[in-house]
Hints:
The first copy, chain A, is an alpha+beta fold. The first copy, chain A, has helices spanning 2-8, 58-80, 105-120; strands at 26-29, 32-35, 41-42, 45-46, 88-97, 127-133, 142-149.
Amino acid sequence: MIEDKIKELGYELPEAPKPLAAYIPALKVNDLVFTAGQLPSINGELKFRGKVGAEIGIEEGAKAAEICALNCLSVIKSVVGSLDKIEQVVKLTVFVNSADYFIDQPKVANGASELLSKIFGNKGKHVRSAVGVNELPLNAPIEIEMVVRI
Amino acid sequence: MIEDKIKELGYELPEAPKPLAAYIPALKVNDLVFTAGQLPSINGELKFRGKVGAEIGIEEGAKAAEICALNCLSVIKSVVGSLDKIEQVVKLTVFVNSADYFIDQPKVANGASELLSKIFGNKGKHVRSAVGVNELPLNAPIEIEMVVRI
Amino acid sequence: MIEDKIKELGYELPEAPKPLAAYIPALKVNDLVFTAGQLPSINGELKFRGKVGAEIGIEEGAKAAEICALNCLSVIKSVVGSLDKIEQVVKLTVFVNSADYFIDQPKVANGASELLSKIFGNKGKHVRSAVGVNELPLNAPIEIEMVVRI
């Protein structure tokens, strides 16, 4: 059971975040589920803020990425009922709120990617883009969207 | 009829914008249609320019987002023939040309999301990522790409 | 044979780049193949660095985009065995590391789009988003992700 595995690893699946605006958090299309971009919030409160490379460092950024990934899983569960239905994590797009000269977006994004590998094993191996951006909603350090196959 | 609904709401479907370069505006793959990134232009002329949070405000940004969304619909129509074929708006990716410290990307993106809900009702409910970027083509304030299921 | 065409055009398919981190370079889902974001590197070495519009110009940016596109093809080949299986290039997302006031992202992205048209003809015609970002991994000037249908 995937949720047991998440607990075993010392994590907790957050409540599915409410969208910040006029959209839905996840949508199933054929055998794919697409999530909205998720921030590192738990119970509606951002756990990290600011630019990576200035206000927060790589390690905190990677922790923030873990929370984004768990939020993605949470909204997927809200649509399909159980994380055990995930056959493959397909794709992450990772937007890192980056200070000038910060070029370690991959290390930050690894927070999400490595956690997914631990949780799902081979089913967690995904493609990924990680890019820097100059601003994110609510001054979040990271925003991640996920596609999975169920 | 979706086009009647668009008129009823006081909007007009623009001519499908020509691509700025060597690509096509929309492509059907199985039951999905993907659009190229659309700017807030009508008849080839950008209706808004500059960074949100500096040169233009949230409300103008949201109006620009509406135009981007209508352009997405226009290029989808150019590929599938009628907007009535849209079964579900699946996903928006909203890139907001953001001034330093501007963190209200979701409010800007709502211009697009709320209009789609008004036009399509439940079929208009989509997932969405909204992120800030430091520059966009032609100094547009917003670029939006859309995926729909037909 | 697509690889012959690439050589005829004076290009060479690079070795499939190793991911920079905990993800995989390409993944097949049903009849689509998604790539991870690709940088303009050959044999693990970035061929261009820095912001377009400052450290490098549009032409160098477009050359960098060509390399990104070839790397996308290379990782697709690593998953499906042959580029001849590509029925349609579906979508590019092009992130351009942009200097302040640089708004010619489409001209840079054309490096990739035009090369794909030359290689694949009509099968190379894709939708595309091109956006500016303030930083990219390793200070790369461009990152491109691709979706193809096989």
